[in-house]
Design brief:
By secondary structure, this protein is of the alpha/beta class. The chain contains nine helices and seven strands. It has a seven-stranded parallel beta sheet, with helices on both faces. Helix 2 packs across helix 9.
Length: 278
């Protein structure tokens, strides 16, 4: 916790306990990366992708949960069904180009159409710094973090209904240096260029594209990253704590809802002010 950090009892929106308000009633949304990694099943907090999928369903959407891990996608879909929501699980690995058109087609068929796309994908591999970077790691990271979302948008745009939102889940690593993984930082920065291009192409049909850029988030993936780089957990955070997956999900909810209908080509940092005041 940062010295003098602000301490506040978390509201229901931060803990995943807030009731839905029907903000996405009748919507059909594909969440790519809607499962989550398992680090310690007994103590794992919710991941961003699972939180978004559940939250969208609570707000009335039918959700296609795509993930490379079948069991994880199935678990997210089961949690949605247990709350009375509608969800379908799809297995796809966006590092494999042939998986992507199939994933989009399966989601469209399962939901009866598509009017929302959320891309929650990203890996960070390799040694630290330029000295630790290799061509193989560079290509692997950009293949998932940049080429994959590009191909998802290429396949999805012709199928998305007019007025649909596209939301990329990126990272503040695309805005400031800090991860010490050059391929990861570069891929997340480049995602902004892809997002703006999608916003440009989609504008003729009212399709908007935006980025949510999380800061430090307490998720299974975040805890795994902290094991490899303990200094991550000592980063001074203005609010004195890391975000929850639900807080990232609520930012994405705003950008997929009609409340953001006049917002496109923008990046929303959800980082307790790390990029603005730290």
């Amino acid at each position: 916790m940062a010295d003098g950090g602000f301490v506040q009892a978390l509201p229901p929106e931060s803990t995943g306990e807030a009731p839905g308000r029907g903000r996405l009633k009748g919507r059909r949304i594909l969440v790519v990366g809607g499962g989550q990694r398992v680090l310690d099943a007994a103590t794992d907090p919710v991941g961003n992708g699972r939180a978004m999928s559940i939250l969208f369903a609570r707000e009335g959407a039918s959700v296609a949960v795509a993930d490379m891990n079948k069991a994880s996608a199935d678990e997210t879909a089961a949690k949605i069904a247990a709350e009375g929501g509608k969800a379908s699980a799809i297995v796809a690995d966006i590092s494999k180009p042939d998986d992507i058109p199939r994933m989009i087609a399966e989601a469209e068929k399962a939901l009866g159409g598509l009017d929302g796309l959320v891309l929650n994908v990203g890996i960070g591999v390799g040694g630290l710094g330029l000295e630790g970077a290799t061509p193989e790691d560079w290509d692997k990271v950009l293949g998932v973090n940049l080429r994959g979302p590009m191909l998802c948008c290429k396949a999805a745009l012709p199928r998305l209904a007019d007025g649909s939102p596209v939301v990329f889940i990126s990272s503040i690593a695309g805005l400031i240096a800090g991860s010490r993984l050059p391929a990861y930082d570069a891929s997340k920065a480049a995602l902004g260029g892809l997002m703006r291009h999608v916003a440009l192409e989609g504008s003729r049909r009212g399709i908007r594209a935006n980025i949510v850029a999380p800061g430090l988030v307490d998720t299974p993936l975040g805890r795994l990253a902290m094991q490899g780089r303990p200094s991550r957990g000592r980063t001074p955070v203005p609010f004195g704590r890391q975000a929850t997956g639900w807080e990232i999900a609520n930012a994405a909810l705003f950008l997929v809802s009609d409340e953001s209908v006049y917002i496109t080509a923008q990046t929303l940092a959800v980082d307790s002010g790390l990029t603005g005041i730290s």
